[in-house]
Write the C-alpha cells for this entry.
Amino acid sequence: MKLYMHPVSMTSRPVRLFIAESKIPVDEVTVDLFTGEHMKPPYTDMNPNALVPMIEDGDLRLTESSAILKYLADKIGSPAYPKDLKARAKVNEMMDWINTNFYRDWAYNMIYPQIFPNVKHRSDEAQAAAIERGQQNAKKWLKVLNDHWIGPKNQYLCGNQITIADYFGAALVTLGETVRVNFSAYPNVERWLNNMKKLPNWGKINEVFYGFVESLKQQPLHAI
C-alpha cells in the first residue's frame, strides 16, 4: 500500500498519524506541494483533484482524508472506528461537522489566506473582511466544540475512547498554531488536544509541520 502525502498537509497529517499509531505497513510517497508537484503529471494522472493525501491499495485508489481513515480503520478492524451502528454514526457525524462547519471558516477564511499566497484575496479589503468573518465564526465553532462536542467530562471527541474523528480533528484544529491561536478560552479543546499530543507518534509525524509553524513566527498574523 502507498500513501501519497506531504508532511505539512493538514489532511495528510491525520492519516499519517493513524497509520503510525496503528503500525500499518505503508510506503509513503512525498508529493511536493511547495513546488507544485501535485498540479501536474504524473500525479494528476492518478488524482485529477491535484490534492493529497491519496492511497493506493492494489487496484484501489482512494482520496479524501476522512474516507481514507475509515477505509484503513475497517481494513485492520480498529476499535477507533466502532462497529456498533450508533457509535459509528456519531464518529461520522463528528468528522462531517469538522470537515464542513468548522474547517470552512477556520481554514479557508481565517488561516489559509494568511499563510498561503495562492489563497490570499486580491485586495486588502477583501482579505481583511474574510479574516474577520473567519475569526467570528471560528469563535462560534470553537465554543460548540468546547461546550457541546467535548464538554467537561469527555477525553475525546466522541466520549472517552479515541476514534478516527480525533485523528482527523486534531490535525485540523492544530492548524490554528500556524497563526498562534490561544486555546485557553476553550479549556476542553485544549485538554483534548493535549491528550492527542501524548500519542507516541505525534512528535515524529508533526515534526515538519512544527518546522513550518516556526517559519511563520515573524509574520504579522491574525488569530483569536
User: Anything to note?
Assistant: The chain has a mean pLDDT of 97. The longest strand covers residues 2-5.
